[in-house]
Amino acid sequence: MRLLAEFVEREGLGVGDRLPPEIALAREFGLSRSTVREALRQWESLGIIERNKGAGTWLVSEVSSRSMHIPLTVKIEADSLQRMIAVRRPLEVEAVRLATRNASEAMKRKIMQRMYELMEVYEAGEDWRDADRQFHAVIHEATGNPLFGKIIRQIHGVFHDIYDAPFGQPQLGAATIPVHRDLAEAIVAGEEEKAVTIMERIMSDMDAATVGVAGGSDA
């Protein structure tokens, strides 16, 4: 993906411009066509390009440095993560709203249990990502609509299948974890607007963390 990004910038390609065919890119990079195809598949998943059999491949998102201090690969990671957050935000907020309204007593106990497990892992300084996924999964379950969890997992998976550790930070967004206690307590207490406000804050802080890390990267 780095070679592809450098090629796009070097050639001055912008939104709406077509990329050369796979075979031409493979020749340009000295790589196999399958390797180039996989890179293009990843870019398509991240919303950077669109592909149409018979019509070619064209850019639908800018691929260029914001400044000389931001490597292209970091910018692509940042832009991709921000797009993922923008789509995920309304779904997560609505899931919290519905969970606050619909959670049974059994689901409320489960939400608190997952929150305590998340806090325990986080406070021990261990990798909290799986515990965080399980915490949010039980909120999605509490909505009563299984599509929330399914769609959010798909959105989240597209990014993290490619970037296991965005910006070299596998636990990006750690600062939001303590707030998850407040979120769980608000949901269980039936405080809908408070729970929604907290979820919006978590998503905003994740977005800010993305911008902050990308802006602080060295060339």
Describe the structure.
With 219 residues, this protein is mainly alpha-helical. It has helices at residues 2-10, 22-29, 33-45, 72-102, 105-123, 129-142, 146-160, 179-189, 192-215, and strands spanning 18-19, 49-52, 56-59. The two termini are 17 Å apart. A three-stranded antiparallel β-sheet has the order 1-3-2.
Outline:
By secondary structure, the protein is mainly alpha-helical.
What structural class should be given to the helix and strand makeup?
Answer: mainly alpha
Unreliable spans = 65-70
Strands of the widest sheet, in order across it, are 1-3-2
Distance between the termini: 17 Å
> What fraction of the residues are assigned to beta strands by DSSP?
under 5%
Q: What is the residue-mean pLDDT, rounded to a whole number?
A: 83
Counting DSSP E segments of at least 2 residues, the number of strands comes to 3
Major β-sheet annotation? 3 strands, antiparallel
Using the CA coordinates, give the radius of gyration.
20 Å
